[in-house]
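Reopening this one. Same input as before:
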Amino acid sequence: MPTWAEVVFLVCAVGFILALKGLSGPRTARTGNLVGAGAAVVACAVPFLYADLDNVVLILVAVAVGTVVGAVGAQRVQMTQMPQMVALFNGVGGGAAALVALLELEHLADAAAVGVDVEVAYLVATAFTILVGAVSFSGSVITFAKLQDLMTSRPVVFPGLPVAFGGVFLAGLVVSGVIVDEPVVWAGVVLAVLGLALGVLLVLPVGGADVPIVISLLNAFTGLTVAAGGYVLQNTVLLVAGTLVGASGTFLTLLMARAMGRSVSNILFGALRGGSTLGAGEASDRPVRSAGPEDVAILLGYADRVIVVPGYGLAVAQAQHTLRELVEVLLARGTEVDYAIHPVAGRMPGHMNVLLAEAQVPYEQLKEMDDINGEFRQTDVVLVVGANDVVNPAARTTPSAPIYGMPILDVDQARQVVFLKRSMRPGFAGIENELLFEPTTTLLFGDAKDTLGKVLAATKAL
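Same output, byte for byte:
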């Protein structure tokens, strides 16, 4: 590789680091994303300028197809479908890393066949990339199917699952040892198949609100495989980019698990012990206090302090613009209003931040859970729009609840709580929310966009 190409790759790697820095804040996220995408494009173009590539036409066709699919997918994906898209793109990355490692294994096998001494480190990295890349691919496909409702989102457990998982994992280690001892292509193919099976067995027992955390974990896996692939191919930019993705994905996984009040091992294997979140359950028929839009408007219109808690239901109804208009009307009346953001609100970290930013909600109005929890006691009305598990007191009071131990927004401490819900069906964790039955709680049933529009009109008429 010429020196100029290595310098360009180094600049691209710096671009990836700057992109991560930009993505750490909502004000700089868009710029960070553009910097990262630009660095990736340059890094992909450089090999065409110095390397003697075979099958250039096929490569360009593949690049063109991938570009079109990615561009169309990004344009058409709904905000509520972002976790699925992340899972799918992540799986493609893991699968690509595994395929590249398989091809490289063929080269290493040919070299070994003519007496070349292949370093053990290369063989270990190659086996690791094949196995973990295949795990990431099949696991991501299962998470996509769960989130897209192509299969049940509940944990799938069958007798002998732990034994099957352990057996496949052990077999993967044995075949990896075979590759390290003597690089042969058939062993690589077997290892890839074992990795695919391992990914399926890893994700099947995960259900409910745990799926986004597993997506983050698989994203970390993909990053590590890309880094290992960069080591095998002696490509600096792949090594740096994969390390960044692997490290950031690992940190994100740990932060999400902490936000859920659980360990990563409990999230992955909790269903085997009956401890994982369980997915949607049955609707409750217990009596609740409900009201109309005009009643809610009066509560909001004459409150001095209001906190809005957005959730996944807000994204589903696409009601963020109407909600922003309602908040602006309340602010114009002199009401103090903030949005309370739970770390795992929606189906992925930052989901609500992006949704509200799309509606031009000022960042200053968004407050993280730890910053706003102490303010609920002094709040006249909390308006919960499409959220459920993140405000469920069972996380504090019911040890048998699957969300027990998860930090929540202390909404139950406010003077009045208004829930906007479509029905009495429970949230993603599949358990009842006792807060719905409290005497200080009022429910407004219906589609969030429709009901918020009626509340907005009634508030303007006060």
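So the earlier flakiness isn't reproducible anymore. For the record, The first helix runs from residue 3 to 23.
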